[in-house]
Amino acid sequence: xxxxxxxxxxxxxxxxxxxxxxxxxxxxxxxxxxxxxxxxxxxxxxxxxxxxxxxxxxxxxxxxxxxxxxxxxxxxxxxxxxxxxxxxxxxxxxxxxxxxxxxxxxxxxxxxxxxxxxxxxxxxxxxxxxxxxxxxxxxxxxxxxxxxxxxxxxxxxxxxxxxxxxxxxxxxxxxxxxxxxxxxxxxxxxxxxxxxxxxxxxxxxxxxxxxxxxxxxxxxxxxxxxxxxxxxxxxxxxxxxxxxxxxxxxxxxxxxxxxxxxxxxxxxxxxxxxxxxxxxxxxxxxxxxxxxxxxxxxxxxxxxxxxxxxxxxxxxxxxxxxxxxxxxxxxxxxxxxxxxxxxxxxxxxxxxxxxxxxxxxx
Length: 362
What we know:
- By secondary structure, the chain is mainly α.
- The protein has one domain: Up-down Bundle (Amino acid/polyamine transporter I).
- Helix content is 73%, strand content 0%.
- It has helices at residues 6-17, 21-33, 37-61, 67-75, 77-109, 116-132, 135-162, 180-188, 199-202, 212-239, 241-245, 266-297, 303-317, 323-355.
- It is globular, with a radius of gyration of 20 Å.
- The two termini are 16 Å apart.
């Protein structure tokens, strides 16, 4: 059985969760909370705490079992297998939506005349090669890519702040309508933070399971929360609330208001960050989908299922979807995400407790 270290577990969580959904968060929060959007960004990760804990507690109840195995023990072979199929489909759709939006961004920002299908196909083929090697190589790649992500974010945010042009009056008035609007906005945005359900795939491979909680806290609140809140604060200060609401990808629009003499295309720097995060998300989701299907179907290896999943994902990603429609689908998918990160894990945990299944802590 393959295994990953706590640091690799941490790296996989960070790079999987930091995908394109985090680009939309500042705009969605500004629409709902106005000047208090930055507070809503903090609230998102407060509300994520029980969500993450539900998934972690479920995984710890079956420390050495894969999800398809213990879901069948809890719900029975048919329902447990069907649930694994649903998770595989969920991650396939997630990959497709991420790739469609990434194709839109690349076409607008960088390669106007290049078909987005080529960009998507290239990313899927490279992801297929890495996913075939197993979780170990994926985890080692995630460690390297995480360093790239952190360096790009720190570099970009530092230059943005140093260049000036930030208007901190954008944060006023403070709590003009009380604390309820930013709290509501934060609660609604929880579904935008996808990737949490990957805990259920990654946990059985963790070598030192006693460090799972520490690694998860470091990933979710020590890294992802810091980056997302930092981007929310900087975009709000740079663009202002009204501009933020009317901007499709706020983070990529910083170049319009932040002028750095030696760096004319700040959006390309941010694009490097998102390309790294998107690629890793695709690889992990592709592996997770194949892993779930293999377990549900009783296959000994996930490798045989990777290519069919790639074809299905590519066909879905090739759909011509207008940006406005894509945004609506993204919002709807946020509610679907809550089903796979809250409802299904919570249901499994409850039924397992009632039936006395599992209970060994890792």
